[in-house]
Design goal:
Blueprint lengths: L7 E2 L2 E2 L3 H10 L6 E3 L6 H11 L8 E3 H12 L4 E5 L2 H9 L3 E2 L6 E4 L7 H12 L3 E4 L5 E2 L6 E2 L1 H12 L4 E2 L5 H10 L8 E4 L2 H10 L3 E5 L6 H4 L8 E3 L15
Parallel strand pairs: 3-4, 5-6, 5-7, 7-8, 8-11, 12-13, 13-14
Antiparallel strand pairs: 1-2, 9-10
């Protein structure tokens, strides 16, 4: 399931989320919480969710930073990267044995941060021009904040693409690669797994393309009206995960 808009909204618990997670935990139903945001480590997110009232184990959290590290480890083990991002991304890369450098790196890896600097972006552009491969954790153009929307990874990637002529490879949702890496993380198979999300353009399409049944909840971004704008549909539309309490063993009753 997605995190923001499904379980929490701006660090506030969505009604019914705690009961939903409790029911899954008591039934020993394997689950994993996904986020396209690459800023925080699993430990940070575990603590953040705990403050909101959700006790989700670190092992049940999967971020675009972890998916990106998983991908790079499979492509070029023990490589090098220049990173624009926060501790969630740098920690994930260090854990797979990557060296972070601005000298002839194998990759430029772009993730979420609230402190993009012109100097760092310029360095990234020059390294890509010099032959570094361009990777981005996710294509989200904006993200939420208490003051309103803020530019996110996709917007900064567009700036770098305009300067270099090179498009990044996006690892996070809606790339089904992130879904498959999450499935592997909990030992699940797509035939017996469903995806719960609040966005048609990332959560639902990535679940669909990874072969999962999907549930759209209307507690986040997408609305009942916006569903009709897409050429694909979720398996089920619900107001929130509160509607799944009591039905986690048979969500499509």
């Amino acid at each position: 399931m997605d995190m923001d808009g499904v379980l929490v909204h701006e660090q506030h618990l969505i009604p019914g989320a705690a009961e939903f997670i409790k029911e899954l935990t008591e039934a020993r139903t394997p689950f994993i919480v996904l986020t396209n945001n690459s800023m925080r480590t699993r430990r940070d997110l575990h603590a953040r969710l705990q403050r909101s009232g959700l006790d989700i184990p670190e092992r049940a959290i999967w971020t675009s930073a972890l998916a990106t590290a998983d991908f790079l480890d499979s492509q070029r083990p023990n490589g090098t990267a220049y990173v624009l991002g926060e501790s969630g991304l740098t920690t994930a890369l260090h854990e797979i044995g990557y060296v972070i450098t601005d000298t002839d790196p194998d990759y430029v890896v772009l993730g979420e941060t609230r402190t993009y600097s012109f100097e760092a972006i310029t360095t990234a552009i020059r390294l890509i021009d010099g032959g570094a491969r361009f990777i981005a954790t996710n294509p989200d153009p904006t993200g939420p904040s208490r003051q309103g929307v803020v530019p996110a990874t996709g917007s900064v990637a567009a700036l770098i693409t305009r300067a270099t002529g090179k498009e990044p490879y996006y690892v996070g949702k809606p790339n089904p690669l992130m879904m498959r890496s999450a499935l592997r993380a909990i030992g699940a198979h797509s035939e017996h797994t469903l995806m719960i999300g609040d966005r048609m353009d990332t959560d639902i399409v990535s679940g669909l393309e990874a072969g999962l049944r999907t549930i759209l909840v209307l507690s986040g971004i997408s609305t009942a009206d916006s569903v009709e704008q897409y050429p694909f549909r979720p398996t089920l539309v619900l107001d929130s995960v509160a509607d799944l309490v009591g039905y986690t063993t048979d969500p499509f009753h």
